[in-house]
Amino acid sequence: MRPALVVIVAYLLGSIPFGYLIVRAKQGADVRETGSGGTGATNVLRRAGKAASALTLVLDALKGAAAVWLARRLVGDDQTTGWLVAAAAIAVIIGHIFPVWLGFRGGKGVATGVGVFLSLAPIPLALAGVVFLLAVAATSYVSAGSIISAAAMPFFVWLQNAFMQPVPGFAPVMSVAVTGALLIIFAHRANIGRLIQGTENRIR
Question: If you average pLDDT over residues 94-102, what whole number do you get?
């Protein structure tokens, strides 16, 4: 029962739509009617400004970190802990992308993924952050930076484990990196279409 509870709690935590709630409170509007249609920080920036966007980014990242922390506290310390924490990490990202409270239409999962990997693998996260900044600087597309850095995350987890220092619970962490990357890329499918067509919104 406890493993199922861990995953359910993580999903419900991920489902808290901070960007939606912040824009609704500030403007009485649905942030999903703007830009890419997501609830994340980039879309909040377009609708409600920098302060609201920054708050959304922090809160979305915190729920990712909180899900990992809660999972570790709830499952204790045994041979299955790593996989249960991995399941919670994946569940919180799924919750953000497919929130039950908003008809399963949420954000892209990037900030929540940042919170997850801040807890699980900070070195690969830092490397992916550099890739994100370089990609955005080169293309002026936040979506391109998000997609490329998410896709690079499994490589950086492997790189640390192979050449820097062992990643604690390498197999579960790698499973989160691969699954998280696939989820984030899937959530950006409309952005990918717009990138191909040349109609994606650039940062200004």
Answer: 94
